[in-house]
Amino acid sequence: MSPPLVEVSAISRTYAMRSGMFGRAAAVHAVDGVSLTIARGQTLGLVGESGSGKSTTGRIVLGLEPPDSGEVRFDGKPMAAPGTTAWRAQRARMQMIFQDPLGALDRRLPVAAQIREPLDIHDIGTPAVREERVRELLRAVELTPAHGARYPGALSGGQRQRIVLARALATKPDFLVCDEPVSALDVSIQAQVVNLLCDLQAQLSLTLLFISHDLRVVRQISNVVAVMYLGRIVEIGSADDLFARPEHPYTQALVSASPAPGRRSAGRIVLSGDPPNPAARPAGCAFHPRCPSAIARCKSEVPALETVGGDRQVACHLVTGAATRDAA
Ligand SMILES: Nc1ncnc2c1ncn2[C@@H]1O[C@H](COP(=O)(O)OP(=O)(O)OP(=O)(O)O)[C@@H](O)[C@H]1O
Ligand SMILES: [Mg+2]
């Protein structure tokens, strides 16, 4: 059997941050021992509040920055060293889409030229083949050659994100990291772009890491969902099951704070208690100061991510402690 397309083993990344009046250095554990696998053709949704380490995880998975420890394997192989031929070949198979399409595009160039850029960089096809591929990509994202002749400033936000998507698909990648790809768009446009992404994923058998703070969007597109809190995964499992029966008190709070399908998004998730501070992560379970059910053990001991049945894993003394008791 072929290995999962993406295998992330215990990656960690710490940043030094100066804070306070005397500029004391604090260590920010942006990502702390994160392990994930993404099977071919599947979408893994990564959710969590601001600062939980979602984007840092995405950058490490793409090889845009190295982890302090841990490893990422792509298609069964470790990430190649940057700048090598093997790295270029690997990079052509993985692409990214970020929140701000205008920032990702060059305002001075017609968008068709920007869709063609990866084909030029990777020297794919003759000029005529490239032109045809650009037309095909514009059609794939439901735009026309006329849109291709325009500059980014003359397109709507949703159209710009379609252009970014077309460019990301130019080299026929297997894997896309989408970091808040629709968060900057109007709610009505968000659904169109997410639907397009779902359709393209199915047609092209793409594997996706989909990062978002919007649970509704994540639920729509993901097969598996991982929930992050201050650098660690606290729960992971099949999307429908996880949203229907969240086990971790944090996931439960997220799910209950998320508007029901069809309702307008309230924007960023707001939970009660002190917002998480990555520079001063609480000892034990980092969620314990906000947890309605915390017990003494939660303040001192970091809960391990443990399987609690099926493909669900939870890092919570209350949940895994209960599972152990049940089994005993
Ligand atoms: N290059 C960097 N230098 C210093 N600190 C960083 C750097 N990148 C991220 N951090 C810190 O690491 C933590 C995690 O950041 P990250 O951007 O991964 O969070 P996130 O979950 O993507 O948040 P958001 O939802 O706001 O995008 C934050 O505390 C952030 O300030
Ligand atoms: Mg982010």
List cofactors, ions and other ligands.
adenosine-5'-triphosphate, magnesium ion
Strand order of the largest sheet: 6-7-8-3-9-10-12-11
Query: How many beta-strand segments?
Result: 12
- Overall pLDDT confidence: 90
Taken in chain order, the helices and strands follow as: EEEHEEHEHHHHHEHEHEEHHHEEH
What is the radius of gyration computed over CA atoms, rounded to a whole number of angstroms?
21 Å
Total helical elements: 13
Q: What would the principal axes of the Cα set say about the shape?
A: globular
Largest sheet: 8 strands, mixed
**CATH-level-2 architecture of the domain at 6-93 and 207-327:** 3-Layer(aba) Sandwich
Could you say which structural class the secondary elements and strand pairing correspond to?
A: alpha/beta
CATH class placement of the domain at 6-93 and 207-327: Alpha Beta
Alpha carbon gap, first and last residue: 35 Å
Which band does the percent of strand residues land in? 15-25%
The CATH H-level superfamily of the domain at 6-93 and 207-327 is: P-loop containing nucleotide triphosphate hydrolases
Here the CATH topology of the domain at 6-93 and 207-327 equals Rossmann fold
User: Any low-confidence stretches, pLDDT <50, length ≥5?
Assistant: 265-269, 323-328
